[in-house]
Fold these 4 entries.
Entry 1:
Amino acid sequence: MRGPRRQSLLIVFLLACIVATAILYLWIASSFFDRPSSRLASRSRESIGLKRARLAFRDQFLDPEAHLLLAEALFSDDRLIDSFYILAEARRFFRPEAFSKAHEKIILKKGLLAQVAAQLQAEALAESNAVKKVGLYTRFIHASPDSYEGRMALRELGQWATPLKPGAETELSIVSREALIELNKARPDHARIFFTLALSYWEGGDRAAARAIVAEALRGRSPGAGAAAMDGVLALAEKNMDRALKRFTRAWNKDKEDGVSASHLFRIHFKQRNDEESALPYLIALYRLNPDHREIEPSETLIRRILDFRRARLLKDARVEELGRHLDGEDASLRAEASLRAAELGAARWIGRLGQLLDDDTEIVRHNADYALYQLAKKDPGPVLAKRQEWLSSTSPLGRCRALGLFADLSPEETLPQAERALKDPSPVVRSLTKAWVMDRYYAREPKGT
């Protein structure tokens, strides 16, 4: 009996080993095959709004609104770094007045109710009765609290509700406070309305009332961003930095439009904790709301410096086989740096992926991918030239024109006829980019290229 039993146990053991080996193999294979498609998988998860914004950005590249719509779609999908690059590049690409107008419309939502706002402001300025003046602003906030005009009206109402000195209530401050209370009852989940009301108590000297309404809101089933932000203000006053950090972080995660929380979070991370990278998302959020924002120096300059240091640190020792996940990643700064590393390491295996990046959303990545391909082609032109027809047939104006520039640099005589044809393309985007990116750079002395 022992012999057959031992044989049975041995067979069971061998079968278990085979099954375990098969499972391990499938796991390794699936993880191996999943890696190259990481960006495709992330693309499939993108919102419809982001996909539409990407298409419009390419088809309407000469329209500043298309740039800012893409920046907003990326910001909404938590792609803050890509959003920053799009916004900063648009700021340089377009005239200041064109950029400002688009920024006010798309990001600040200015002008949605501009005519009503102008009429309201005229009526309010002409009105001497405080009750009627507050009523006009309250009516407008009810109608559109998230528009630029609604936010400005709410801010002014908050200032009216705050007496200049504790206890020095006026008719205007009393009526304004009552209006804020009614607005908060009508829209209890609106963060800015709650925060404005609580702050008017706090700055008006009624600290007990401010603490009371915050405590009541925090006891609710789902405390809003306004309650969390105001509790952060209270925590700062009590020098409780840990609680302030938690509350402001919760508020900002709930409402990325919350400039107050973003400002406090930036200062906590950057100035008190000396952690520049942790401060980065909040600085980008502040820059988005106001591209002229300054923190010690222009915020755009500071953001670029933090990103440059971060990407150099993260990819300093990256090996050739590791570059793929960065080239496929959702961080434009790392895609740009990985492109440079591919050139530095002579990583010809990534030529195909670099070619796709010629059509990236951001100029920094398009530029670096172009540079990397040029450097790789200088060492061995064959693999890059083999992609010539594919890249020059791109349906995207960005990818096609960037490829034209690359091949104009590598083989100018061969590329000139295609560049001249692109100057007559039906798409104004192709014509404009071909002139700026190709003809003016590589064929400025050519009679046909002038």
Entry 2:
Amino acid sequence: MKQKTIYVLWGGAFILCAGLGFVEEPQGLTRWLLTGLSVLCFLPPALLLYRAAGDRDRNTLALVRNLSALSLGLTLALLVLNLLSAQWPESVGQLLYVLLVVVSSPMICSGYWALSLFLWACLLMGALSGLRRLRKDSEKSA
């Protein structure tokens, strides 16, 4: 599978999760399907990491690292702002929640927030490990 196809699959899964993140309180089979979809959203970047480590592709490792760190950082900021928005007008809280759904779409889609945060952290740590390994290898050869 071409790398461009994997990026398209990742983006498509992310967008699908964002749209389905607005389903309110799914029950039964729907909840399981949404959770499965949100976990599948992490399959393309995991494949990209695997290939990048084998191909020694620093750019892909850096991209996955940056996207993972950005998602985790923005999720934290938006969660804190959502909590603080209890004192603000309702429209601000709704806007912040919409931003949270878009930024953290697998997290909201699955309903199991810790699972999505864990998978983003796994991607981040995998990318950091791959970049560290490449740096050590380049230092040995120099």
Entry 3:
Amino acid sequence: MLTSLMELVLGFIVECLLSLLWWFLLFPVVWLVSLPFILIMARFRPQPYGLAVTGMLTTVHCAWRDWGLFLTP
């Protein structure tokens, strides 16, 4: 029983650490990698530039959330 409890607690800690790693390292990388493409593509949208950039960055954010990679609901 103690082994099972330790495994549960250690598994939870490892899962939290991996989630934090995912959140703090990978999320900004996705934004930084997609940003140049978004800035270029926004030039060719019929919308005003700022609105197009905001909309596309929101799309990246929503895709990240919809794939289940977001920590907050």
Entry 4:
Amino acid sequence: MTNEAFLLLSEDERQAKLRAVLMSRTGGRLTNEELEDILLSAIPKRQYGVKVYQDAQAFCRDLALPDGCRGRTILGQVMAGSGQEPGMLFCKTRAAAVLVRKQAEESEVYQIHIFIPPERSQKGYQR
């Protein structure tokens, strides 16, 4: 969806769209509480890219934020890194999420990076 079309939606429609994207991208593996924590942290007037990880190292590596980027923990026990320093995930058995703001040439790009523990993809996982 383009930014222009997204901005024409009501706040409820934008929230519903983000909820649907989060459910789809995570395969429904976030608990309702985790999903609500992420939704409460997201600003409704912004469009977000969503990246989902099950590999803790890849998650931390992608949280090595270059200059001009900022990260804010919105779920779990995680901290974004800077420059060449990767992020840190303090509890690999719980979901974590970081909201990242990247300053582009004339605009800002927002992403939500979500870590889901690998055991949640195993058969029999209960939300």
